[in-house]
Write a structure and sequence with these properties.
By secondary structure, this protein is mainly alpha-helical. The protein is 76% helix and 6% strand. A two-stranded antiparallel sheet has the order 1-2. Strand 1 (99-102) and strand 2 form a beta hairpin. It is globular.
């Protein structure tokens, strides 16, 4: 029964994290399409990002096995950092339409930039 509960907890944490990433992505798309500059939407987006990374952190903590020695834990961190580095290198090579600089801010030129910027922030945020 405890094994089933931990699996359900892991699935719920992963679903909440993924769902909140999707909500942040939708907020970015709506802000780009409508060009709304309400500060409450920006604060809500930042709050959702913090909650998302916290839930993903709890998910990773639930995967972490407590009985492992320091060498295995260090190896896990090394492999995870190699995956993040490889994903960052791959994402930086993808062609995008870029950003436009106006009034000391970067404005995306297309929706593909929003998609790749969100994916890049997810990869580097983890």
């Amino acid at each position: 029964m405890a094994l089933l509960r931990t699996k359900i907890t892991k699935a719920v944490l992963l679903l909440i994290s993924s769902g909140l990433f999707l909500v942040v992505f939708i907020i970015d798309i709506v802000q780009r399409s409508v060009e709304i500059d309400f500060e409450i939407i920006s604060y809500l987006r930042h709050l959702l990002i913090v909650i998302t990374f916290l839930t993903f952190y709890f998910f990773l903590e639930s995967l972490w096995q407590r009985q492992q020695g320091p060498a295995k834990k260090l190896g896990f961190v090394l492999v995870l950092s190699l995956i993040v580095g490889a994903a960052s290198l791959f994402l930086s090579m993808l062609p995008t339409s870029g950003f436009d600089v106006k009034n000391y801010s970067l404005n995306p030129l297309g929706f593909d930039v929003i998609v790749w910027a969100n994916i890049f922030s997810i990869v580097l945020g983890i």
